[in-house]
Amino acid sequence: MTDEIVTSKPKAVVAMDVARAAGVSQKTVSRVINGDPHVSAQVRDRVHEAIKTLGYRPNRAARNLVLGRSRTIGVLSVGSTDYGPSSLMVAAEHAIRSAGYTMSVVNTLQGEPETITAALRDLMDQGVDGVVVNEPVGVFSLAPGGIGELPLLSLSGRYGVSSNEVVADADQAGGGRQATEHLLGLGHRTVHHVAGPQGWRSSGLRHDGWADALRTAGVEVPPARFGDWSARSGYEAGVHLAADPDVTAVFVANDQMAIGVLRAMTEAGRDVPGDVSVVGFDDVPEAAYLPRALTTIRQDLGHLATFGVGLLVDAIENPRQQDRREDVPVELVVRETTAAPQGHRRA
């Protein structure tokens, strides 16, 4: 005869067990778990101690049902692999998961307002608690307040489509001004600009900062050339700029395009910074290790996304506190691609 060993699965700890251990009702345990502010600190401490001692794990699905939340944050993006959008996406995902939320991403490979709006409605249909709008998004084909009170975080300026909107944005226009003022301060008569694609908020704001700085200084505002953020488009713009001997300073809207401009200048035999000074934007990791280390505008994208998600979570969990906006400063990093123009140096 063979002895049989019978094993039984340990009984799961339930809320009633926590209630007995803490000497409170099961309803009080539920109120503590759900963050009810009307529970005394003493009772709350007893309940949390019982939860820790017993190893109780609240049923998240049931808790979310009580709170009317999905614990999911939607992210609207076009799935760009460019440095700025991809860095924001990685940092936002980490911040969302660290805050105890899951993430649902809807990508759209087109920038038309109707396509963007359809992607936003897809997230709303999923019942997300809030939405992060990641660059590049230009506009929505929605009336102001079109998504009601659904909390929305924009990482690129205010859209006005939610009554509970949060904005966390780097000072894009200020960065454009800093880059331009730096070049003017070196003695360049004017500054040419290679802008990002039209329809992108960051591109438009950097362009505005450049133009404003030139107007304030009372100097000529030359026509801008537009790229698509790629090094190739920067190179193509750089070929035209290199052919003009009057061009001595160029502000480029991102570092990838600036790398293309540098290549075009080298091929044309124009020395950087001897003949032409170049400033980029972003401070990508490679910027400091180019043959001529790139002068650029640094924005802390990781901090921007993390800070913004924190504001969004606060908007979700404290909906009465509305209309939050924070502008994160940027920094000019001077390296080896800018100098006074030759005539100015001789003088």
Automatic annotation (TrEMBL):
Domain of life: Bacteria
GO molecular function: DNA-binding transcription factor activity; transcription cis-regulatory region binding
SUPFAM superfamilies: lambda repressor-like DNA-binding domains, Periplasmic binding protein-like I
Ranges for domain HTH lacI-type: 17-67
One matching Pfam family: Peripla_BP_3
Keywords: DNA-binding, Transcription, Transcription regulation
InterPro entries, sorted: HTH_LacI, LacI/GalR-like_sensor, Lambda_DNA-bd_dom_sf, Peripla_BP_I
Protein name: LacI family transcriptional regulator
Species this protein is from: Cellulomonas chitinilytica
